[in-house]
Amino acid sequence: MSSEPSTAQLALPVEGMTCASCVNRIERFLKRTPGVEDAVVNLATEVATIRYLPDRVGRSEIIGAIEDAGYDVRPVARADGAPVASEADEVAVEAARARETREILVQAVVSITIAVGIMALMLLGRSMPMEDLNRIAILPATFVQVWAGGRFYRAAWRAARHGAANMDTLIAIGTSAAWGYSVLVTLAPSFATAAGLEPAAYFDSSTIIIGFVLLVAGWRPAPRTRRAAPSAGSWRWSRPWPGSSTGTWSATCRSPRSSRATSFVSGPAIACRSTVASSPGAPRSTSRC
Q: pLDDT (tens digit, 9 = 90+) per residue, 158-208?
């Protein structure tokens, strides 16, 4: 009698996703990995849930598939509905996400402020030659391009190494075009004047694009890791077993995300273990629901 191979489930927090295209790409790379039965990626929670055959594929191969798609995996993961990291690790992940969000928002505010400053310089400094205005704007604009825009270059390079393009690629190319042309006409204004054009730079365009994209990314609510509510101890409930005047039925229910006992709630999110004794002194049997 042949038995079906047992499957396991793994939840991996993924970094670097920005749109539905990222989700589709990660799912495609995971599903074509030998031994992976199914893969679902949630963009809002930044978690990839994979159902796989443990005898054919391991956690390292699954993480490798996500990295091959051009994305990173956070260090905390859960397998088969049980926590493999401590509560302190979950708090550390939440703190890291909060720091990342603060960093993005700071970069967004600085980028937008510099962009507004460059726009004001171009409007209020019309009495100055365009070449001088460009020389003033090149330093703050380059700072934004490297400091705040660096995350887009890193993500675009990661995707390009695996033959892919995503939103980060689009932002990196677009802002680089505006910034690169501006640097060219700033350092060599004759390039534009020889063609009969004014050596106008677009430093404000590249900085404002980076700022607004980071602002949108920073305002997106960061997913929080749900933890079971604290409990003073094990929770048990007893009543007469149906059809028996002497037997009792007891159930202990625990949340799959915590080793602590929780109050009973019906539904697939709670794993229940029941112990049955048909009569006093009779052997007990254990089942799971």
A: 888 877 788 889 999 999 999 999 999 999 999 999 988 899 999 999 999
Residue 121's pLDDT is what? 93
Model pTM score: 0.65
| Dihedral in degrees, nearest 10, Cα atoms 256, 261, 263, 266 | 30
What span, in angstroms and rounded, lies between the C-alpha atoms of 168 and 9?
A: 30
For the purposes of burial, counting CB atoms within 10 Å of the CB of 8, is it exposed (0-12), middle (13-18) or buried (19 or more)? middle
Residue type, 2: S
Strands 8-15 and 72-73: antiparallel
Q: What is the CATH number of the domain that holds 69?
A: 3.30.70.100
Which value, in Å, is the radius of gyration of the alpha carbons in the chain? Answer: 28
Number of domains present in the structure of the chain: 3
Q: Which residue matches tokens 């929080």?
A: 224
Nearest to 250 by CA among 228, 271, 235: 235
Instruction: Quote the CA–CA distance of 97 and 45 in Å, as a whole number.
Output: 12
Domain containing 46 equals 8-85
Percent of the chain that is helix, strand, coil (3-state, to 5): 45, 15, 35
- Residue that finishes a domain, picked among 52, 85, 118: 85
User: How open is the CA angle 23-27-31, to the nearest 5 degrees?
Assistant: 175
